[in-house]
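# step 3/5: fold
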Amino acid sequence: MIKRGFYILALCAGLGLLAPRAYSASGVPPSILRVLTYNINALPSPVIRHKTARLNRIAQILKERREQGTQPDIVVLQEAFGERCNVIIEQSGYKYVVRGPGRKSGKNPRGTSWGVESVRSYAKRAKPQKFMGSGLIILSDYKITNPVFTTFSGKACAGLDCLANKAIVMTEITVPGLETPVKLVTSHFNSNRSAKAPGAVRLRAHQYQTDILAKFLARTTSMDAPLILAGDFNTKLPARYEYFREEINALDAAESCLKTGLSCALDTQTAPSEVLYMTDDKQFYRSGSATLLTPVYIERNFRELLNGRALSDHTGYEVHYALDTPNKDGQ
């Protein structure tokens, strides 16, 4: 178990930033940045043994990849609830770890009961009740600085999703050889049918969350810094995806990859539909003024079964970005 003493307060209250381990990272500039987003489905459940075994296996896979030198440089996790998820932090070997806001972080405006604006009532309390934190974790081999977050409050949630303190987290990742840190943003947006709220309410809540994300990006990022937006955005529905893509001012990594042909490849077991629109897990990106990001490889992974069960109800979504710094070379 990770000791409490390893945690220090981040610049914004509510974020847990894990202090770096004793060893230092290599100063060799990478040519590829590997980013994995993965919803690990570690929701509270009475079936503790089953879920713990799955989390142990996820941790083992990341450890094995590190031993092979193929580990993602950055991993963002969603639905990482509870101390059971610490095994991933402990076993995967990442030097820097940021936890998203907890259950009580942020502001919960009055007058919104589970964030559902409809005739149907989901709770009778005057204040929203948050029973879980954001479930977000960021792991990185490269130094993390300046983590900030904002929570989805009030009308920006619908149904059962309002029981978790869902949020957006942004960190700066200092990648060797890059003049400007990479802005890494992750989130977990409102689910669809599993939220158990009316369809119109679910859509409206998702659009409110998109509006909050767009304002958050405008406030915390600039066109000078490269940006990677990775997470479970629940954008499988066309109406959600179209609104989301229009507002965030970033490129869909899968669209870019499939358009560029031979310069970008999908894993042999990954179908285009798994990375384009029929998925809630996505990555978007934007190059900076001194750093060009180009997707060169995409893979859906963590597909194996453990005792006949999937490791999660999601698969991993990993994108490899080529890094180019033409200004540094004087070109």
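# step 4/5: annotate
Residues 199-220 form the longest helix (22 residues).
# step 5/5: archive (pending)
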